[in-house]
Every structure is written in structure tokens, then in C-alpha cells.
Design brief:
With 266 residues, the protein is mainly α. It has one domain (4-261). The protein is 80% helix and 0% strand. It has helices at residues 4-11, 14-40, 42-50, 54-60, 69-104, 107-111, 117-146, 156-184, 187-207, 212-217, 222-227, 231-234, 238-261.
Length: 266
């Protein structure tokens, strides 16, 4: 049986995907165009960065030499730009998967067909995966081509590894938004609560190096596991993948339970 709900959900996004492609490719091209000037000012930039607060460096710069090829890509692209964009997409798609359909009044049409609620959640979740995978491929291909023009050498497998971590990070918060939307039926509430959780998790990880009590709970933050092992240098981090997989599976299971048990206001 074809996953009609999944396919239709992706079809509904095809126009927005065009803008996502243009935006991601354009931003990556811009960052690649800026890098030569960063490389020429490497010493001054590194001296300036060394004077920054440790928490700020950890949150926005990372551990690598900023002006180095790997440090620049890691800091500007994978620490700042892409997590923000991917979380924006994932939280929006996850919250709208069930709650968005309910608020638009289209969920009753869907459930009027002989389809189980669990299948609806699973296929909506599949559409979330499909959208994030598509954007991940756009990022890897764009970067792999872009770095060739500015003499940056990063292997394709390393780009794939760090982008896969980004995919898992985004899918985790997208799954949380799906759960909250399935439980409450409110897209706005799901977006707000998930965004607040993401911000809290980000600052727990960012401030942990300078706040003792946060250091003790740092590993509960998905952002810690996103950067753990420095995948752009060392490749796949199986510990982080295991953490994200567990979180995603639990959130998906809870989403199915919440949607099956809730009385829908349709």
C-alpha cells in the first residue's frame, strides 16, 4: 500500500522546497565568497576571538581555529546558520503535521477514510524525515561544490557525518513538536513550547563550561550530542546517533498514543 499521506504531505511542500533550495544554496555561496577575506585576516580574527567570553566561543565559534577551513565551516555554517534554519523547518513541519491539519479543518476529511490514526502519525512523521533528508542533501551537495571554489578541503564523508547530526538534531525537535501538536491540537502552542525547549537546551549546553550546576546536566541537551566528537573532523559519532535515535523513537511512540487517545474537536 502506497504511503499516500506521506506523499501528499511532501507534495504540499513542493513550492516551499524551491525557496528552501534557493535560500540554502544562496547562503552557502555567500559564506564561501566571504571565506577568502576571513583567511587573509586569520591572525587578527583569532586574537579577537580569544578575548571573547568562553561561553560565547563555545556556543557560536566552537573548538576549532575559526579562520581554518574546517573551523570556518563548522562555526559559521554548522554552528550558527544551519541549526537555526533546520530547526525552523522541523518545528514548523512537526507542529503542523497533526495540529495544523486540525486547525485548517482538513483532518476530519483525512480521518473519514478507513485509515488508522497511528498510520496518520507515522506517515506525517515520514514526511518530516523526507523533508529534512531533502534539505540535508541540498546542504551536502552545495557545500561539497562550494568549497572547491575557495580551496577548502573537507571530505564528502565528513560533510555527510556532520550534516547527519544536524538532521538528527532537527528531527528530535520536530518529533517533539509533532508530539505536542498531537496532544494539544494547537499548532501555535506546539511551536511555542518546542521553541522554548530548544532555546533552553541550547543555553544549557552553551553555559555549561562556566556554570557548575549546568555542567552536571549538559549531556541531556541535544545540542551537546550534536557537536560531541566533532564529526566534521572525526566523522560519525555513534554515541550521539544512539542518543538521538532513542529520543526520536520515544517521542514518536508518545505521539501515536496521544493522537489515538485524544478526542478531536472536528
Amino acid at each position: 500500500m502506497w504511503p499516500k499521506i506521506l506523499i501528499q504531505s511532501l507534495k504540499n511542500q513542493r513550492k516551499s522546497f524551491i525557496f528552501w533550495i534557493l535560500g540554502l544554496v544562496g547562503l552557502i555561496a555567500l559564506y564561501m565568497a566571504i571565506y577568502p577575506s576571513v583567511r587573509e585576516s586569520a591572525q587578527a580574527l583569532n586574537e579577537y576571538i580569544e578575548k571573547m567570553p568562553e561561553a560565547f566561543r563555545a556556543a557560536f565559534i566552537g573548538e576549532s581555529d575559526y579562520a581554518s577551513p574546517v573551523g570556518y565551516i563548522s562555526s559559521e555554517v554548522y554552528t550558527q546558520m544551519l541549526p537555526l534554519l533546520f530547526l525552523f523547518y522541523a518545528i514548523g513541519a512537526g507542529s503542523g503535521a497533526i495540529a495544523g491539519e486540525e486547525e485548517k479543518g482538513t483532518l476530519d476529511i483525512l480521518l473519514a477514510t478507513p485509515v488508522r490514526r497511528s498510520r496518520v502519525v507515522l506517515e506525517k512523521f515520514g514526511a518530516l524525515i523526507g523533508g529534512l533528508l531533502f534539505l540535508s542533501v541540498v546542504v551536502v551537495v552545495s557545500l561539497f561544490i562550494g568549497i572547491k571554489f575557495v580551496d577548502i578541503t573537507i571530505s564528502l564523508d565528513k560533510l555527510a557525518a556532520v550534516t547527519f547530526n544536524l538532521f538528527l538534531l532537527s528531527l528530535s525537535f520536530g518529533s517533539l513538536a509533532l508530539l505536542l501538536g498531537s496532544f494539544t491540537g494547537s499548532k501555535g502552542l506546539a511551536i511555542g513550547l518546542t521553541t522554548a525547549t530548544a532555546v533552553l537546551a541550547f543555553f544549557i549546553n552553551a553555559l555549561a563550561p562556566i556554570v557548575d550546576f549546568l555542567e552536571k546536566i549538559q549531556k541531556i541537551s541535544p545540542f551537546y550530542h550534536y557537536t560531541a566528537g566533532n564529526p566534521i573532523v572525526n566523522g560519525v559519532n555513534w554515541g550521539g546517533i544512539s542518543f538521538f535515535t532513542f529520543i526520536i523513537v520515544v517521542l514518536l511512540a508518545l505521539s501515536i498514543v496521544a493522537f489515538r487517545k485524544r478526542d478531536l474537536m472536528i
